[in-house]
Amino acid sequence: MATLSQPQYNSADMPLTWRHWWITIVTGLGQLVGTAVATIAGVIIPMILIATNNNLSSAMQGLIGAADLIGIMVGSVVFGNLSDRYGYLSFFRLCPVLITGFALLAIFVPNVWVLVVSLFMIGFGIGGEYSLDSDYVSVLVPDRWKLVMLGMCKTGAAFGNIFGAALCFWMVLDLDKATAWPDLMWIVVGIGALMIITRIYFFESPKWLYDHGEKEKAVSVLHKFLGNNVSMSPEMMQEPQHANADQKLSFFQFAKKFKNRVMLTGVPWACEGLGVYGIGVFIPILVMALGIEKEVAGASAIAHVAQSVKTTLWISCLILPGFLIGIWLAQKKVREAHLQTISFWACCLSLLVLLFSYHFGWPKWISLVSFMAFELFLNIGPHLVTYLLPPKVYPVEVRGQGTGIAAAIGKAGAVLAVFIIPVLLNYGGGVLVLSVSAVVMAIGAVVTRFYGKKVGADA
Are 11 and 142 in contact (CB under 8 A)? Predict the structure, then answer.
């Protein structure tokens, strides 16, 4: 029981406390490991190329890069359905166990096909993370701070890029041999172990408990999360709504009825997937292909990989400021679709400058700054807004299905991008990759602007 000296709060309008930060950090680790795995895969691919004397087809490179993304697509659907039925906590603990276990498998069974299977299962666990993290934050964080804390949870992705690139750079220098590529998966093991430890003292979602008739337990769990002087908000105590006809629509029926919203939330998410994952996974290879990394006379092949990873780290450092700027602009009531449109155009322009710099042999610092500008604007707008926009534009009765469809289209675009980048590199080099990527960014801007106006989401 709360003491008389303690102020009494409602969970929806209480002040932001260290407990909310702890919940956000614990749930944000799923976002962190998701991008860390993609970064590590992008370093492993050139190491395998060196170890096999370039005996790794572009299709196989794409499969290695896309394996965890395919796992994320499957895992988000599977764990999303299971958690709705059986609760969040058990799956919130199972996901990091899967991630850690299959990372260990990739280390101790150093085979390319085992790596593909392991990355798929790691992605499967990450997909569960993605389906659960925002639910905990949205239920437990005060209304005033939900947008900020959801954004902060998403910034875990930025830390994953930076952390993954930094550790890869240090480990590649230390390993000094391409055949040691499985050792990079120890990074995933470390993050997975941290996730397991932080979830030992964690609890079931109070909203899930309340919705399933365990009202006293829901209150008890809320007190464990936020303190004995916090009561459940009216929104948390709302009875669950039964599925209506709109929620039972098939994918094609839903897409037909909500065509404009599906186009606005899905297509730009797929375009963003090319930047975050297509280019993101292959940044080390693109850096080498474009000649941006620092040249060291007589350096070994693995040393070139290390230099490209170092450049990747510099580029990745712009991801976090991008997220923070995007969150700040969203807090300033900048319309999400308007922000996304401008950012897509800025990404397109950055890629064109990078293309011209490479084609005409401009100084390397121009190429590096252009690449960094691309990452900055990608995360100010598309990478953040695609996460925030679906809940804004769909009515509450179909919001879950609409968000799920948008995420599925986005991940499908990411998988396609990861498969196609090495093929484009093989047939047209950096010029073709940058040209196609600039066009995709322009498509994202045009679609966002056109359909944003149609659904009233743009300024």
Answer: yes
Place of tokens 């994918």: 251
**The dihedral sign for the CA sequence 311, 314, 315, 317:** positive
Q: Provide the pLDDT for residue 299.
A: 65
The answer on pLDDT for 401 being more than 80 is no
Topology classification of domain 252-459: Growth Hormone; Chain: A; (1.20.1250)
pLDDT, residue 243, reads 46
For the segment 331-346, what is each residue's pLDDT rounded down to a tens digit? 887 888 999 999 999 9
One-letter amino acid at 370 equals S
Q: How confident is the model at residue 36 (pLDDT cuts 50, 70, 90)?
A: very high
Instruction: Give the model's pLDDT for residue 297.
Output: 57
Angle CA 382–387–391, to nearest 5? 125
CATH 1.20.1250.20 in the chain, residue ranges: 12-202, 252-459
Question: What are the tens digits of pLDDT across the range 158-201?
Answer: 899 999 999 999 999 887 788 999 999 999 999 999 999 999 99
- Report the mean per-residue pLDDT for the chain: 88
Looking at residue 363, its pLDDT comes to: 92
For domain 12-202, give the fold: Growth Hormone; Chain: A; (1.20.1250)
Q: Please give the average per-residue pLDDT across 342-355, as a whole number.
A: 97
Q: Do 129 and 105 form a contact (C-beta atoms < 8 A)?
A: no
Question: Could you tell me which of 133, 154, 131, 136 has the C-alpha nearest to residue 77?
Answer: 131
> Residue 296: is its pLDDT beyond 70?
no
